[in-house]
Design goal:
alpha/beta, Udp-n-acetylmuramoylalanyl-d-glutamate--2,6- Diaminopimelate Ligase, Chain: A, domain 1, Rossmann fold, 5-stranded mixed beta sheet
Length: 319
Amino acid sequence: MEECEAKIFIADFLGDTGRIDLKIRLVAGEKGVNKLITVPDINRPGLTLAGFYDFFAFDRIQIFGLGETAFMRQMSDEQKEKTYGRFFSYDVLCCIFTHEESPDRVFMEYANRNNVPVFVTSKGTTRFISTLMHLLDEAFAPTVTLHSTLVDVYGIGVLLMGKSGVGKSECALELIERGHRFVADDMVVVKRIDESLLMGGGNPLLLHYMEIRGIGIINIKDIFGIRSVRNRKRIELAVMLEEWDSTKIYDRLGLEESMHKILDIDVPFITIPVRPGRNIPIIVETAALNQRLKKLGTHSARELDESLKNLIGSGKSEK
């Protein structure tokens, strides 16, 4: 298990960022685009432009909405020189103007002079902030890399764990052959998006690749088609594959639900003993379907246990 530190630069907002297009363009301060963003938050500088600097969060992305731009337009040239001079005396990270509102000439001169990137977006302020915060939250999310395999089985993200050589990749390969979708093999990058959501994906370098002993490296997308892969999936079940140990007592009822902690979030956890003759992919499929039922409020083992208790209770009452 290897924890990773998130890093995101202003330059990452230029053009298409991948899954999310911010529809943004650079209009000033090009020399400052390689600044490192250290705070996953934004600031609306309305009070700052009015002269209140006591709590000026200059190290955050500055968002200029319709209110800020309207206030700036009514300032005289003398007021702009004074206001912008003080504003840019701080080490401002960057500025973004929404609603296609472009900053005035004086503002851009100060931005270029102080190497502060200034962007303009066609998006509205509220929607843009929502999109930007989602992007920042994910970029700064706690991250860990796990030696495991992640597969989407019936809509459930199943994390296959176990010692090297126990058969994780082979199990995943059979699941893919049966129509399920491959996410990542060997190195699963897990992000904690919020207090209850774990998203798993592959290392960009190893995306869609899998190692099969005896064959070597294969590309799942090329062999099975684009429908057999997905780039990331929410992790909702952890499955430990281990060699059968005759001295160990395995769970045969499933009344109590075990948990596996990943980045301080509990994930439902089961252990599947592996030995010749056991069809592990079918067991994993069944475990995924059973997990879906539990999410819908149906717990088969507990229902049977409750029925037996009611039957025994009714028998005693008759006596």
